[in-house]
Each structure stands twice: as structure tokens, then as C-alpha cells.
Specification:
- By secondary structure, the protein is mainly beta.
- Helices cover 10% and strands 52% of the residues.
- A hairpin with a 4-residue loop joins strand 14 and strand 15.
- Helix 5 packs across helix 7.
- The N and C termini lie far apart (60 Å).
Amino acid sequence: MKTKIWITGALCAATVATAGAQGISNDAVLGGKLLGVSYFDLTTMKMFSQRNYAYGTARSSAMAGAFTSLGGDLASMGINPAGLGMYRASEFGLSLAVETNSTHESYPGDLWREDYNRTRFVPTNVSLALNLYQGSGALTSFTFGFGYNRRADFNYRSTVGLPHDNYTIGQIFERQLDGIPEADLSRDYSYGDFPTSMWGGILGYKAYMIDPADENDEYDLTTVNPYNPFNPGSGPGVLTDVDHLLQSRTKGSIGEYNISAGMNFNNRVYVGLGIGIQDIYYRQDEIYSEQYVNDKELPNYGGYLYNMYYGQHVKYTGTAVDFKLGIIVRPAGGLRVGVAFHSPSFVSVDQEYGADMQTELNDGQRHFAETNLLSYDYRFSSPPRLLTGISYTFGNVGVISADYERVWYNGMRISDKDGWRDDYKAAAKEIFKGADNVRVGAEFKPLPSLALRAGYAYYGSMLRDDDRVFDGPVGERSYNVSAGIGYRKGIISLDLAYTYMNEKFTSYDLFYYKEPGYEAISQSGYLTPERTRHLVTLSFGVRF
């Protein structure tokens, strides 16, 4: 049985959702994707905390990022900086990728969808490792590195159309506004006086989706079902069939700039440390429309809704800093054991949110309204990570490697500037747990200059309850399958990798509202997304 949570990860959202909503009692439960776009909560923090090791050099991508104990690759800076100690020479590398992704939405009933395939060129790694010292003492070598590595990608698009039902999001907007004096809604810049959870209702009022209030400050939904003389059961107060269409677009990425150093002690112990500076950009556009199944040719009894468009737009920009410390030991022969710790990232993001609405009446009149632009800043810390790895090198013939990673998502924390820290801390412990990630990779060299590679990665769920339903979809588990080939001639290397990525998400509603004494309002049935990516990475490297 699915567990519904309308507070998307934070108890403080309850205050945001109901403050100023005089028509909604404290016993009301409302939520869904369309009512939670503006929220910054634990699921947002989780999204900015995830990492997929498929992004890197072609060699590391082909071996699923199982490089905690391997090293000797430019991607080591962002995995285990001790791997820089393996270098005997300096290296510059450039990695570019072609990426195709798609989102597939499933639904228990009939569903119209349009699956978009987006192809893009992206840089995944640009790095330089400088071997600054080679000696014969206890310190055998020292290598300094800096570079860029992609951590996450947010570029998706999907469109879903849901079958007829008798509910409209306008019913929730109407209920939110009840009890609020109409004069408070009529001002040009009234949005700042209310929480963003109510902005949809204010837009509905300004765009003629909601009729003016009566003497008791109670509002009604503009008629969506005019009287039809051929259908005696029709008329105001009887909802028509409603078609729902949602177009979702997200774009952005997280890139990391690493500054790292690795030391080699007697070719047995390698120690490294580094700092990562992350650049965050994320934009989400939710374009929702309702089509009311009416005949435009019917007489106009005071005007009725024909369709409604509701757009919401949120953007995050920010930076983050984390620290990495690692060690690799070669106890015997080709055996290597590695451990790395990634501190929590200390994240600072700025949010901008705005929305707009347009309605069309049966007589062709159109009404448009848009909100102010809300700006807010947030500070939080992402979960710490512990990476362990073991590998074995078979001379010059090949290598096998395995990594285990633990990520404590229940350790996410927000700054206390608004008094939210304790609520977020309690919610993080209730909702999230530590995630277990496993990566394995292998490389085989049939010729000294030729390498064949393969890998598999599994990123486990961070949710205590996998059936929990949030306001929007939350990525909970994923896997990668990869393969690649490499060629090295002298100081030049050329590598190619292919990775298939599959990510599964939690289910979600478009909207829902429940309050004792009132009929429940909901777009019935859960939507469940699944996303796939095809990533082809090409790397060029030169050692000097």
C-alpha cells in the first residue's frame, strides 16, 4: 500500500501550505506535483546531493566508476584523490559525451503520452595532472591535479495527457481563497502577502477561473458546465468532464571543479586529498492545462470556462564545497585496497519562482495573469559519503575492480536561519536512510595498446519506505551498464565508452485535497516515471 505524504520531506511545509488560507482547516491535506513546485524541501536537497559516476573519463565510465582503489585516471580526483599518486608522468585529458535521454510515464488507466528523446553534447571531464616530484626516498612521487567533472544532469522533458474525470484544480483554488476579502486579492502586487502554495488560487481569481466572492467572502469556480437543453442533468454546479495535460521540462546540471593532490610512499601507500567546488544550475517548467469538455456552440449563460493554462517556473543557481580524503594500499602483488571519505557538501542556492495563468471562455474571451518573481536563498549540507574499493591487477593483461559506497541521506541538514533545522532533521531521519551503492568494472588487454572494458553500477534506494508518495517524483534507485574500448600509442590515448542508465522514481499525483466534511478532490491515479539515458563518451589524453 502506498503511503501518501503531502509534506515533501519537511514538516515546515505544513505551515507554508496553510498559512493565510482562511478557508482551509488544519485538518486539510493537500498536495501533488502542481501544488509543490515552489517548495524547497528535503527532496530538493536530495536531488542536489546525488551523483552518478558514469560522468567522467571514458575509461572510468566504461568501468562504472569503480576507481576507489585503482587510480591512475583523471577521474580519480573526484572519486579518491589518492589515485593521483599512481601517476609517473603528467597528463592532460578532455572528455566529451553525446547523451540521449527519455522519460516514460506509467499510469494505471488509459494515458496519452509523448516520450521525448533529447540528444545533447556535454563535456564530462577536462583535467590536468602534474607530476611535480619523482624521488627515491620514502616519498616516491607527488602529483597535483585540477579539473572539471560533471556530477549530475537534469535535462528531461515529458508530456502526459490523462483521461476524463470530474475534478479540476480550480476546486482546490476556490477552497483556498474562501474567507479572504476580495480586496486583498485585487491589488496588483498581492502575491507577496500569501505563501506560494496559494498563488495558483490568486492567479485563478485574477484570470477569471474563480468568480468574485459573495458577501461572506466565499468564492465559486467559474461555470464549467453550462445548461444544455438536450441534457437535463447539465448546468452550473454539475462538473463536466475535464481533460488534464501536463508538460514537464527540466534543464541544468551540477559540475565540479576539483583541486587535488596525491602522494606515493614507496609504491605501497598512496594518500590524497582534495577540495571540490560545485556549480549548480537547475530550471523546472511545469505547464499544466485543463480542457473542459463543453460545446462552444451552446448558448452563453453568463460565460463558462473552455480551457485553462497554468505555468509554473522555478530556477535554482548555487555553489557547493566539499572535501575529499583517500588512501590506497598495495599489500601484495597486484592487490589494491582503497578507502575515501567525501565530506558533506556545504551548499548555497538561490531560488526564483514565478507562475502565470490564462483562461479562455466559451465566447473566446481570454484572461491572463502572472505573479511577482519570488527570490529566496537556502543553505544546507548534503550527506557524507564513504567509499571502499578492492581491485586486482593481472600484470599487463587486465584488472578487475569493485567499489562499495555508503551515502547517509538521513544526515542532510538545513541552516537554521528560519528556524527550520529541527523539523528538517527529524523529517530526514523519518524519510531517508543510508543508500548502498555498488560498482564493478573490468579491463582486459588482448594487445599492449588495446583495452576492452565493461562495468555495472547499482545505486540503491535512500527511502525508508519505497511506497511513499511525495508531491512530485523522487528518484529512488538506478543502475548503469557500460562497456568501452581504449587505445594507447606512446604518449597519446583515445578511449570510447557507452553507458546505459536507468532510473526509477516514486509515484505522484497531479493534485489532491482532503478535508473532513468536504468531498475529496483528486486527479485519480498515480503517475510513475522511469528515465533512461544513453551516454557515449570519447576521451583524448596526452602524457608528458
